Amino acid sequence: MINLDPEALRSAMRAWSAGVTVVTAVHEGERHGMTVNSFTSISLNPALVTVSLQQHTRTCELVLKSHAFGVTILAADQTQVSDLFAGRMPEVEDRLATVQTKSLATGSPLIVGGLAWMDCRVVQTYDAGMNMLFIAVVVAAHGTGTGEPLLYHNREYWKLAHLK
Predict the structure, then answer these.
(1) Residue pLDDT, tens place only, 94-142
(2) In angstroms, what is the C-alpha Rg of the chain?
(3) Long-range contacts formed by 9-17: CB under 8 A, 24+ apart
(4) What's the predicted TM-score (pTM) here?
(5) Pairing of strands 101-102, 18-19
(6) How far is residue 53 from each of residues 33, 39, 104, measured CA to CA in Å?
(7) Where are the alpha helices (DSSP H) in the chain?
(8) Looking at beta carbons, which pairs linking 99-103 to residues 24 or more positions away fall under 8 Å?
(9) What b/e sequence results for 46-72 when a residue is b if at least 16 CB atoms lie within 10 Å of its CB, and e otherwise?
(10) What span, in angstroms and rounded, lies between the C-alpha atoms of 112 and 24?
């Protein structure tokens, strides 16, 4: 196996632009969430998505225990929410206490104000080095495709500009 310097990959990945999501989970009353951009749809029929979470985080542990998670796709005006769930406000112990939430099918908290929400049940889990890869069936979803998404590129937030 080739041992690539992680900083070389990190630098190269800064060229990849992505939407910003918050992945949340709940198990036996304990709730937590984290900012994630390693999220994608992989199939419409069946409705499958994948998300990669760093192992040994509270969110990953809750997803492993509950076999479920929620995904909120953040709007352009939610940079503070992204920062909160990315841990950039370490003085906030309970991240979900500072935002309004709702739930759909699994009870996973979803952040009000997002552009879209997906409620997911895990169907497969893969140990992927420092991360855990989850493949999940979407059991409930809501979103209209309207609004401006929050984007992340080269370690900065961006807003979508329409090109004509």
Answers:
(1) 899 999 999 999 999 999 999 999 999 999 999 999 999 999 999 999 9
(2) 16
(3) 14/153, 14/154, 14/155, 15/154, 16/153, 17/151, 17/152, 17/153, 17/158
(4) 0.92
(5) unpaired
(6) 10, 9, 22
(7) 6-13, 58-66, 79-85
(8) 101/24, 103/70
(9) ebbbbbbbeeeeebbbbbbebbbbbbb
(10) 13
Strands (E) in the chain, as ranges, are: 18-19, 21-27, 30-36, 39-44, 47-54, 68-73, 101-102, 110-111, 116-128, 131-143, 150-153, 156-159
DSSP 8-class letter at 162: -
The tokens for 84 are 């909160």
- Omega before residue 46 within 30° of 0, cis: yes
46-89 confidence digits (pLDDT tens):
999 999 999 999 999 999 999 999 999 999 999 999 999 998 88
Q: Which residue has the higher pLDDT, 32 or 160?
A: 32
